[in-house]
Amino acid sequence: MTQIVEIPLWLFVLILLFAAVTALSHFLLPSVRWFFRRRLERAVKRLNTRLTRPIEPFKLARRYDMIQRLIYDPEVTRAIVNHAERNNVPENVAFEKARRYAREIVPSFSALAYFGFAIRIARWLGNTFYDVRTGPENDERLAKLSPDATVIFIMNHRSNMDYVLVTYLAARASALSYAVGEWARVWPLTRLIKSMGAYFIRRKARGALYRRVLARYVQMATEGGVTQAVFPEGGLSLNGRLMPPKMGLLSYILEGFDPNEGRDVMFVPVAINYDRVLEDRVLIAANERGDRKFGGKVSVVFKFVVHRTWQRFRGKKFQFGTAAVTFGEPVSLRDYKTTPDAESLANDLMT
């Protein structure tokens, strides 16, 4: 027991490294994570006192827990079994596919990123490019919303600035959750967008398994009271006119709604109009070609924003005119119709 044991220096260093990693992972990191989580919880509690619609626990849940809850949901489990049988693959392979879908969809909301960073950037961008005008009854209509209902903003889609404007105009009410298309699945937007509570969707996905995973996430978020923003058109308008609504997300919400129990769902129609949109040349060219291939790159958008920012710092103010945002009268899903369907609801909300 007291004999001297000689080992090579490299082995001694390796042993010390393993010991340090073990101590860090088992003793120090859990305490550090607990400390910061407690501080974040207190910060969110203070923030909720200033919001008219406090951030719901569902939105603040750990991303890992939300993914686990989603993939073990009974409806998703049935979809996994059906997918395995239909495609003649083992169930564990189908399960891993569902897990990939869930990881792709589920956001990792950060109240610090949203209220400490995103809101300020959104306000600055909106006022940099536009003279932002709001409807005179916007605040009054938001005040009519039931505090226990899930609120969903239904918006027309004229520009990618729509996200920016509504995000900061609704900032005093709550944090919004958006569905974002594949265009934003590029570094570094992916992590940033997910930290702000948005979730990615594959607009052209046709697989039953993917649709069921997405549907259950949307339904869980709605049941959990998450304030959402939906673009029924499913894409940018090429000519400024309203496009026929796509039923995807609305049909998922209606499918999971029970008028006799749980939360009511209140839809707020939002009209957004611009003197000139940032993407005007791209949209006009796509409309003339008759396709929806915009060909834009994130790097081009970044250069454009940097260029306009530099112009503003030099005192050369340039704006694209007025942007007007108006909230319509809220519509209660519980009071809407005895048997509502997605198409009639979408048409009523958009006209």
What does this structure look like?
The chain has 351 residues and is an alpha/beta fold. It has a domain at 126-204 and 215-350: 3-Layer(aba) Sandwich (Glycerol-3-phosphate (1)-acyltransferase). Helices cover 53% and strands 11% of the residues. It contains 15 helices and eight strands. The protein has helices at 9-48, 57-60, 63-71, 74-87, 91-105, 111-129, 138-143, 161-169, 189-195, 208-223, 248-255, 280-289, 298-313, 333-336, 342-350; strands at 131-134, 150-155, 177-180, 199-200, 228-230, 265-274, 322-327, 331-332. Strands 1, 2, 3, 4, 5, 6, 7 and 8 form an eight-stranded mixed sheet that branches. β3 (177-180), α9 and β4 (199-200) form a beta-alpha-beta unit. The termini are far apart. The model has no long low-confidence stretch (mean pLDDT 81).
CATH topology of the domain at 126-204 and 215-350: Glycerol-3-phosphate (1)-acyltransferase
Count of helix runs: 15
Q: Roughly what fraction of the amino acids lie in strands?
A: 5-15%
In the CATH hierarchy, the architecture of the domain at 126-204 and 215-350 is: 3-Layer(aba) Sandwich
SSE layout:
Layout: H1 9-48, H2 57-60, H3 63-71, H4 74-87, H5 91-105, H6 111-129, E1 131-134, H7 138-143, E2 150-155, H8 161-169, E3 177-180, H9 189-195, E4 199-200, H10 208-223, E5 228-230, H11 248-255, E6 265-274, H12 280-289, H13 298-313, E7 322-327, E8 331-332, H14 333-336, H15 342-350
Helix pairs in contact: 3-5, 4-5, 4-10, 5-10, 6-8, 10-11
